Hints:
The structure is a single chain. Helix content is about 20%, strand content about 40%. It has eight helices and 16 strands. α4 packs across α6. The radius of gyration is 25 Å and the shape is globular. The relative contact order is 0.14.
Amino acid sequence: MGAADSKASKMAPELSLMERMQQRSPLLTSPNLISQLPENVVEVLIPMLLGDSLGNSLCVCVHWHLHLSAIFKSFYERMVDRPFQDVYGKYLHLEDARMIISKLLLSKSRGVRIDRVLLARVLPAAQGYNVKIAANFQVHKGRSFSSCAEYKFDVFSKRSRRHIWIHKDECQFNRDEHERAYSQHSVPLCVGDCVEIAVNLSSLNGFIDASTITWRPPVLTEAVYERICDEIEDIQIDWSLPQYFIRPQDCVVPGPFDPQLKHKFTEFSGSDITVSRSLFTARQEGLAPNSLDALGCYVTVYAKDTPLHVPVKRLGLLHDRELEISLRIGDELLLYISRGGEEC
């Protein structure tokens, strides 16, 4: 190759992924190839696509991405979204639904998690109630078995002050790999807020047959304003201020999270394990400094009249989706931290 050819080769623009694929296999990225498949045929393939195959299929080219996305949207609107609105429409108005694909790493196992995330606005009919919603379905992983997913949240009047607790376990013998605080299962919401409900379609535990999803009627009980961490409060019954605690050298006040969160007090309890209980009040908009380092998650404060998007965890899980904790000005955050013990 001559010097001129070498120079021209270096100056040639680099081909995109789609252009390289078109050169190798024009049929693969033909817009007609995927669009000619009937929708009912692609729906039959959906269980086989859930998992790593879905991400790979969506990345083939823009035509595959658009066509598959449209079919998935139509399919899950029929199987998940509309039945949800039919059952819970008196208390929740479904405003949006989307597919979320995220990576999973559990021990030596790797995979993806696929969720159908429903975004529903809380209606005035739910005010004053603890609302429990649930879905029954069939899970496939080598064999089929029945399962269910349940979610709970308390609903209060619009712009009411909310009270939320979170717990971070820093004990040496029981340390969470991510060192992330977990929050209460029954989250507080106000009328006008949006609740995010993630229906897990596929994970390392198998995939859900969407045609078997059945939403159960809502269960309503009286809403509870100040919930506490029962697993801590049932054991630790004697709380002391730092100056009166038996081991003052173990008294570590979390934070600071100023100016977003104002510290009101911290109490301590325990013998072998020291547990702190701190109350903070949201005072200023913005991301609370040190929240990620101290709690393993972001804590963000919004204006008093801002409608929040609040994810609700599936009952039985400490951690579900790794999202921020959202507060409004005036909300209270009760933070528990467990420390101590010897590493095994």
